[in-house]
Amino acid sequence: MGKKKKSVLRFWIEALLFLALVAVGVAIWWQTKNWAPARADYPVQGVVMGEGEGPVDVSALRTARADFVYLEASSGADGRDAIFGRNLAALGETDIPHGAVHAYDPCIPAEEQAANFVTIVPRDSSLMPPVISLSKPASECGDPVLEAALESELTTFINQVEGHAGQPVVLKITEAFERQYGIATRIERNLWLEKDWLEPDYAGRPWTLWTANTRLTNPANGEPMRWVVVQN
Asked: What is the spatial distance between Cα 107 and Cα 137, in angstroms, rounded to a whole number?
């Protein structure tokens, strides 16, 4: 085969490979923006929101068919979502079920975190079960005593939050945190797991909520949503 023919063949092979890569990229982009689990499989679906998503747009949530909303409320001993109160009030004027999320910090005593949560989140039986988000590893605290006391401190925090809310909490656990500490199998509470597009199985037991797509596009305004489904 002549050099010219080899050059042409190489050109077309490289062109086809490039087009294949473009097609894969477009498919991934589309899935990121548009995919959500089928309603036939998971009839109840909703969102988790924080100040990063901005103020609640009730009309947009209804267009997206969000059946519930979880609002990021507090973190650690003094962290507070800047628009939690505003969003809570907006949802309180609707029939959309909603609840609050606390980001747990293993480096801070449980009592201080509980005081933060109960100050910002009202005692209201109409709220959905409170959620404790677990992602920060105790190894970041730089104190082996704190790491050893993780489960004990977390249990104290859970008890105080449940006493305030009057209902069991939900544990929202990242895969990295679960692999390091195995909390899902040691503390019996409903689980909220995270994994884009693929059903998570890292907890060793069934989950109740699943963050299925962290970048789903809201058809009403084109903004990304963190989309969550419920397993009955």
From this structure: 9
Distances (CA, A) of 96 to 15, 135, 161, 186, 192: 51, 27, 23, 32, 20
Distances (CA, A) of 180 to 131, 133, 139, 177, 224: 20, 15, 10, 5, 30
| Whether the predicted pLDDT of 190 surpasses 90 | yes
- At 22 the pLDDT is 52
191 within 8 A of 170, measured Cβ to Cβ: yes
pLDDT of residue 11: 62
Residue 32 pLDDT exceeds 60: no
Write out the DSSP string of 72-94.
EEEETTTEE-TTHHHHHHHHHTS
Q: Quote the CA–CA distance of 228 and 10 in Å, as a whole number.
A: 46
Q: Which amino acid, one-letter code, is at 51? A: E
109-116 average pLDDT score: 98
* pLDDT tens string 41-57: 999 999 999 999 999 99
Between these two residues, 12 and 184, which has the higher pLDDT value? 184
Pairing of strands 45-49, 69-75: parallel
Q: Which has the closest alpha carbon to 166: 130, 114, 205? A: 130
Phi, psi at residue 181, to the nearest 5°? -120, -15
| β-strands 170-173, 190-194 pairing | parallel
